[in-house]
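From the shared-data thread, chain only:
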Amino acid sequence: MDAPRVASVCERMPAEQDLDDTAEVFGLLADSRRLRLLVALLDGELCVCDLAAVSGMSESAASHALRLLRAHRVVSVRRSGRMAYYRLADAHVRMLLDLAVAHIEHTEAVHPEREL
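Structure, as tokens:
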């Protein structure tokens, strides 16, 4: 074991709660329908009805997914009368999505579980 290196890594390790919160965000991003909503928001703010149309979800299902994303500070909402307009919460979310999409576009994924 390389004790100095292990100690250095341990010093830089985020707090347990921060790791749990990060894992929850990645869990939210692991759902392709929620991810479709987020990718749609890369172009800017959209209302729930437009997001439902883009994602192929019902407005109710899209609203539920957006509530989850909002609770984890992945998206934010602006209300105008009865309409709700969603956008990505901040530049960090945009960067995370941009990097994930770029990674997939430039690599060939191997899915052994799909080759059955």
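The longest strand covers residues 75-80.
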